[in-house]
Amino acid sequence: MTLAEQHRAFAAGETTALAVAEAQLAKIAQTEATIGAWETLDPAHVRREAASADERRWPGALGGLGVGVKDIIATAELPTRAGSPIYADYRPDHDAACIERLHAAGAYVFGKTVTTPFAFLDPARTRNPVRPEHTPGGSSSGSAAAVGAGHVAAAIGTQTNGSVIRPASYCGVVGYKPTVGTIPVSGVHPFSPSFDTVGTFALHVRDAGLLASVLGERGRVSPEVTKVAHRPRLAWLARFPWVEPEAAALRALEGALDALRLDAEIVPVAIPEAWQGARDAHRTMMIREGFEILGSLQERERERLTPALNAAIDEGRTIAVGDYREAGVFRERAIAFFTGWFDEYDAVLCPSASGIAPRGLASTGDPSFCTLWSLLGFPALNLPAARVDGMPVGLQLAAPQGRDDTLLAAAAWCEERVRFADGAP
């Protein structure tokens, strides 16, 4: 069921929040030892919250639903460790703003999902729910894996480069990164304030949109995904100047596009040469801001930070303020250009990642297919679209800032035509 259908089932007396929670806890008991999606999970807490929702008759748009929350997002009721031993015993005094809104919608924090340390590239312990010998991606690894494994119907993550879209693609779920600033980041451990964005994971486009609507600023995302009332016009961006898709994944996505071409106009496009420095501009800003955020912590705790994070902070320290500002100017010009370029399309389609989730746990995969949209602050969404050797391949949709409802409508339209034939893995 979708989240809305589940909520209606509570009201109709067909089930209860506690019954749903018990089924989810049973699923977790069967698979969590293999997947490792949860940083903090207290079954007694889950049962109390679900029973309380039943007593209160499931108020709000998400009343009675338990949601996984990435462990860089502050929760007063559960620890927030940010994937690091430095914060092993940290319990915030207040909820993050998005968690306050989650509670106001009647939902509760099911548990805290594993994040890579400080939401950077170093792998955490989580494994892919489709094949545990493959990475789930990062940094929102636990949130994507928890939804993919059927532990919860929805979860919250964050993206600074590719941390919602990539793990969603690898784990075969919908991942939605709204327009930057749509969901408040107050109470979310920062890395790069220019790009840090709270996003959502679910099994359906409508659920990802509904969850984002209650977490976000009023009116930014509609709780109801509208139907596309015309023949969609979609741009197809098969590759980026800085990264190429794997041949098998590209073939699989072309098959999905063939299904869309029956009812939509799909126009091949390519990134103009003037904007081929987008990845470098994003990295310059992200790494410099990462140093500004974490530099003082590194001075105190270098030995307890991961090698990759230390290297990034060290690199950020060397980036001149002038280079950072120049990258910011590039970004503003790029936002203006790509907003105009893509104005005539319902959405831009491109791969979500280079291919299927890489085998092994030494890496979380390459985020480069997400970098342009993160640089621009454009909303983006991963749609499970195909399989290669039994592993999910995602189709990414993006649109200019503020066009989240248009993006979600296009994604729901595509979902009806290219979603895995046998359902989510």
Specify the CATH homologous superfamily of the largest domain: Amidase signature (AS) domain
pLDDT under 50 segments (min length 5)? Answer: 421-425
State mean pLDDT (0 to 100 scale): 97
- Please, how many helices? 13
Taking all Cα atoms into account, the compactness measure Rg is 20 Å
Widest sheet: strand ordering:
1-3-2-4-6-5-10-11-9-7-8
Distance between the termini: 15 Å
Q: How would you characterize the overall build of this protein?
A:
The chain has 425 residues and is of the alpha/beta class. The protein has 3 domains: 3-215, Amidase signature (AS) domain (Amidase signature (AS) enzymes), CATH 3.90.1300.10; 233-274 and 331-418, no CATH class; 278-328, no CATH class. It is 40% helix and 14% strand. The chain has 13 helices and 11 strands. It has helices at 3-11, 17-35, 43-55, 97-104, 141-148, 165-171, 205-215, 247-261, 278-301, 307-318, 321-341, 371-376, 404-418, and strands spanning 38-40, 66-70, 108-113, 154-159, 174-177, 197-202, 233-236, 265-268, 347-351, 380-388, 391-398. It has an 11-stranded mixed β-sheet with strand order 1-3-2-4-6-5-10-11-9-7-8, sandwiched between helices. Helix 9 packs across helix 11 (321-341). The protein is globular, with a radius of gyration of 20 Å. The two termini are 15 Å apart. Mean pLDDT is 97; it is low at 421-425.
Question: What topology emerges from the helices and strands here?
Answer:
Blueprint (H helix, E strand, L loop, with lengths): L2 H9 L5 H19 L2 E3 L2 H13 L10 E5 L26 H8 L3 E6 L27 H8 L5 E6 L5 H7 L2 E4 L19 E6 L2 H11 L17 E4 L10 H15 L3 E4 L9 H24 L5 H12 L2 H21 L5 E5 L19 H6 L3 E9 L2 E8 L5 H15 L7
Parallel strand pairs: 2-3, 2-4, 7-8, 7-9
Antiparallel strand pairs: 1-3, 4-6, 5-6, 5-10, 9-11, 10-11
Helix pairs in contact: 2-3, 9-10, 9-11
